[in-house]
Amino acid sequence: MFSVTRLLDVDATDRERVLGSVRAAAARSGAQRRLAELTDPGSRNGGDILLHLRFAAQSDWCTAEPVITEALTDPAITGINGVTYRGAPTRADGPATVYRTLLLRVQPDAPAEKIALFEAELRSMPRYVNTIRSWQLSRVDHAIGTTEWTHVFEQEFTDTAGLMGPYLMHPIHWAVVDRWFDPETTDVIIRDRVCHSFCAMDRPVLS
Amino acid sequence: MAEVFVLDRVLTKPGQARAFVDRYLAEYAPGAAERGMTLQNVLVSPPIWFEDQSNTVTITWSLPNPLAWWQMTWQGRPDPALGQWWSDVDALVLERSRTVASAAADVDALCAVESDV
Hints:
The structure holds two protein chains of two kinds.
Chain A: E1 2-10, H1 15-28, E2 33-38, E3 49-55, H2 58-71, E4 77-86, E5 98-104, H3 112-128, E6 132-144, E7 151-157, H4 160-169, H5 171-176, E8 195-200
Helix pairs in contact in A: 1-2
Chain B: E1 4-12, H1 17-34, E2 38-45, E3 56-63, H2 66-76, H3 80-88, E4 93-101, H4 107-111
């Protein structure tokens, strides 16, 4: 599976119009799964519109890319952070209503064994946080925007409360995983600002 | 919700323990307190200001709950001076770690945060 994410910064007065044109382009993209929504205000550096497309193969994205690119040239779009990547989600049963994606950049000088441990700890989180339904951790093929993103960690959550409560407040987050992001620890390997973006979903994205 | 403890454990370079503790208390501690942390203790092991050996300094801070921990780190993280401070005291430090902990009696409650789903 080949996935594309675009987080769009959009002038406030044009958001609904741009959302309409982005949705129309997504519908013509041929993506197997697609999501184009206004982001939740709780997002951080997550853009105003979240566009996510999942294709069977990279070649399908290559076919669709001109349609999407044209929609994203709207002058009301003032900035874009984005990634393309491969991989398949780990799926879990149960309803989900919120899609969340995290874009991050691991420092280029981070040792491989540290990166492997960081990735393993991220993958362990759904075992502890049962408001995470389906999820996927991927290394980035191609990044655009303010930072050379290296990883994408995406999840479907039961609801916003499941993201803001259990995910944030479980010790696996603040006492284990967060140290990789904390410049006060000696383990820090992510120093750039991340993109934390989430929105409502009315149909499965990962599941 | 359970208290959260932040533990800085620092193995100082020989003869540098007192200088490290002095700088920590004078330069680091005031900002940490402003971010919501309460200093519980600063322990020096062994309790001798060695001139030619290392000491282990263990500093314990507390916060009232995990949300306060997040609020603390969200305040500090955008400030490049904080990471820089740790780099500046590298000359006094052989190795160090920062860990986060809670009382054993609170572990089950902390991990049950999702139980109402």
